[in-house]
Design brief:
single chain, 211 residues, alpha+beta, Alpha-D-Glucose-1,6-Bisphosphate, Chain A, domain 4, eight-stranded antiparallel beta sheet, Polyketide cyclase, ASHA1/2-like_C
Length: 211
């Protein structure tokens, strides 16, 4: 299990707030290093065939100003695309209201030969009660799972049955530690320790219910 915990620790997490005329929004940031060239990471994140292998099938008009749909998940508009370093899109989950104005931004930068810094920022328009109950882990754990899947994909080890894997002891360990890591990031953002810990525990229970 130590290897899967190491994958949790590969990611640096930050939580912030954003004030807008529409009200308070939150940001979750994930940053990690991949042992791959920037062009390979970009291609994995923007080519539909590769996305379907490690993330989700995607359809739409995949260009700036076009729209996209992730199968069974989010949809939105592609706001900016600057290969191989920047991709920004609006993010509407399920049947959500597009006025909630969530955004996802992917930033890539080459660190050394064969190493790419990957940053993902999700600007979240979350219900205040839901955010208070679950904190950043409500979206952060899902993104941690995504970054783990990308790590395996870039290593040539795609999971053949992601749904079955998420019920495995390894996945339960990963999601539990991910929830705690987001609790620590939540506390580091200035939230009282007890509040951050309670939200992290609620997140862990949601992702890893008792058998």
């Amino acid at each position: 299990m130590s290897d899967i915990v190491d994958r949790v620790n590969d990611v640096r997490r930050e939580v912030g707030n954003d004030q807008s005329p529409a009200g308070e929004r939150h940001t979750v940031l994930l940053r990690r290093l991949y042992a791959a060239e920037i062009e390979d990471v970009w291609d994995a994140c923007t080519t539909p065939e590769r996305l379907s292998r490690w993330f989700l099938p995607v359809t739409g008009d995949l260009r700036p100003g076009g729209t996209y749909q992730l199968e069974g998940n989010a949809r939105g508009e592609i706001l900016r695309c600057q290969p191989p370093g920047l991709l920004k899109a609006s993010w509407v989950y399920g049947e959500g209201d597009e006025t909630e104005f969530s955004e996802v931004e992917l930033r890539l930068s080459q660190q050394d030969a064969g190493q790419t810094v990957f940053e993902l920022v999700h600007l979240v328009a979350a219900d205040p009660r839901k955010w208070g109950e679950y904190g950043p882990g409500a979206v952060g754990v899902g993104w941690d799972l995504t970054l783990l899947s990308l790590h395996w994909h870039l290593s040539g080890k795609d999971i053949q049955d992601p749904r079955a894997w998420q019920d495995s002891p390894e996945a339960r360990t990963f999601m539990t530690h991910s929830s705690r890591a987001w609790g620590a990031a939540h506390e580091a953002s200035g939230v009282p320790a007890a509040e951050a810990a309670a939200a992290a525990e609620n997140t862990a229970k949601a992702y890893v219910p008792e058998p």
